[in-house]
Amino acid sequence: MTNANIPFLDLVTVHREFEGELVEVLKNALKTAGFIGGPMVQGFEEEFARFCEAQLCVGLGSGTDALRFALIAAGVKSGDIVITVPNTFIATTEAISQAGARPDFVDIDPQTYTMDPAKLREYLERRCRWNPKTRQVVHNATGKPVTAVVPVHLYGQMADMDAILDLASQYNLKVIEDACQAQGAEYFSQKDSRWHKAGSMGQAAAFSFYPGKNLGACGEAGAMTTNDEQLAQTCRLLRDHGQSKKYFHDIEGYNGRLDAIQAGFLRVKLRHLGTWNEQRRQAAERYGKLFAGVQGLLTVPHQPSWARSVYHLYVIQVEDRARLQQKLTDAGIGTGIHYPVALHLTKAYEHLGYHVGDFPIAEQSATHILSLPMFPGLTADQQERVVSEVLQSLSATAPSAH
User: Fold this and answer.
1) Domain annotation for the chain: domains and CATH numbers
2) What's the pTM value of the predicted model, to 2 decimals?
3) How many Å apart are CA 374 and CA 369, to the nearest integer?
4) Which stretches of the chain score pLDDT less than 70?
5) Pair 106, 123: CB distance under 8 Å
6) What is the pLDDT of residues 289-323, one digit of tens each?
7) Residue 95 burial by CB count (10 A; 0-12/13-18/19+): exposed, middle or buried?
8) Strand partners, 56
9) By three-state DSSP, how is residue 2 classified?
10) Are 198 and 177 in contact (CB under 8 A)?
């Protein structure tokens, strides 16, 4: 154990453990030729909706499809502005752009890495005006309507939804949760005096089942959850070329269907997701104890009292990230960076005209964050070795190390 490599993510063990059940899904699909739609997809949709405490789920080809279709179905139109955060995977903003809207950003909370409601309020009050005739917020500089907000539940932790939903209600904005990293995460609503699951608070929510997610398919897959039947029905049309029935096209749609085999795999895994999430929480707690007392050398994840994270990632901040990452690589320890460049500074969005310094918290985190090994089955011995290597590296470079 001492000298063995520690992967950033272990996708082999879980599939070996449930290989028999997964093979049965494949055999059933081959026997029935049920590859598209059908009972496996419908069964997963029903079970995942219950898991998320939502009324409806629409299985889709990817998390990107889920977010794009949710935005379109919620009424986002060409020329609209949709607000999100700059520290997320580009799929968030791709979905906005591909729905015809322009992504705009607000900065993040430095402790949670999720949307800062104070920055959202500042954006709406200072950069926009209210049009009482259309009951829309209008962006001052462009004259375009601001119609939706996409809070990203990053690294397995939900954004501060009470505050975001309150602002959305005040300014007539749709709220579409980007829950692609947050299957099973929870938020305590002071307004409702109870815990809510990710995917149950906005008008709709998008989930990704990319293999590395807490609930991962054996390929590409995604889903949208909602309590709005009309929104769900529109997403069903969008995923299947706009067909209400075969060859009858009510709208122009896309090819965004969830494969039946992937749905079957997800049903097998969904039964174990609660246990896996709890193992991630326990691993995060162990990391926290092992790093206790050394916060001067690094910043560990912060979980507010209103959050129950599922720790899709365990992300620390350090000054010399490159040196630490190389040290861990040399020691056979896998790491990741999520994400190295804030989206407003990427080449893909040069045309939007953002500059360095526009979103300083997101920019600062992008240059300092490092994701450590995190997966169900990560052992205490492995974590002790990870932390030992981290502290040795940081202590060697700390000005007051002696």
Assistant:
1) 12-268 (3.40.640.10), 274-397 (3.90.1150.10)
2) 0.97
3) 15
4) 1-3, 398-402
5) yes
6) 999 988 789 999 999 999 999 999 999 999 999 99
7) buried
8) 226
9) coil
10) yes
